[in-house]
Amino acid sequence: xxxxxxxxGIGSRLRPHTHTQPKSLVxxxxxxxxxxxxxxxxxxxxxxxxxxxxxxxxKIEEYVRRHYPELQVTFVVQEPREGLGHALWLxxxxxxxxxxxxxxxxxxxxxxxxxxxxxxxxxxxLAVKEVKTPSLFGLVETNAAGEVSRVVEKPRIPKSxxxxxxxxxxxxxxxxxxxxxxxxSTGRRTHEEYQLTDALMHLxxxxxxxxxxxxxxxxxxxxxxxxxEANARLLDRPEFRQVRxxxxxxxxxxxxPVSIGVGCRIEHAIIGPNVAIGDRTIIRHTIVSDxxxxxxxxxxxxxxxDCIVGSDASFRGLNHSLNLGDNTEIDYSQARQ
Length: 337
What we know:
seven-stranded parallel sheet; 337 residues; 25 strands; elongated; 9 helices; alpha/beta
């Protein structure tokens, strides 16, 4: 089965970080969002990938080719960006003839689910999660037999609280391609975009059976709050929970779970819990918790919590909750002198 990963979006809700890199390459828990996604799919046995790229797509292509040279990869450019249905329509010829179907996973979504079990299920399977604010999501309605009877994108009056989480196993790739062609040829738009939900609804109306599979956790990493939550949940895995000694970090307390990149210099600090630090970052006289710190950054004389600091950024100063992009420098120490 081929995996299709749409990663063309701008990621405006994660600015300023996405001014300089694609949303899917934002770091989280010792990896990138895209790295976590590809690693899980590869672990489930998938080796053929289609990446639908757009904004800063050259960086995604370079990242994939450098980190995953063993995979069979195809890149499709979506320009202009007119929705998920449009993105998949552009990529339809890469998967429509696959007899085993196609797996679609959004490039800003990390899902905790038993992927081999989901892939082993017969027919088309839509991954879902119960949510408290259903009007914000694409929703699934089911009938008494447990089959999907309706999918709808962000309805004003929801009739279900089971949201589509961005993971779709489509059994008949050719029929999906035809539904996407119907979507574009008829100009069917919802919320001003071509939606995959409309193509799936067309398949249901044509008699294609679909079922749902509930996921354990689902992180839409397109916002600071959910990215930090994903970071904490992913760091809660056993390899990060193990207590380790860091003799190279003088006068420093590490409170697991923590991920620290290579070549970091840390002294007179308290790090953790739930902190991911990139490579070759310098931290002095600082307390950091529940945060993501990029590579080649420098922090000093600060108390930081619930922060995202990009790569090659510098901060010296006070207690703040921050969202700093790449190549940023903030210095509060001069104001106190």
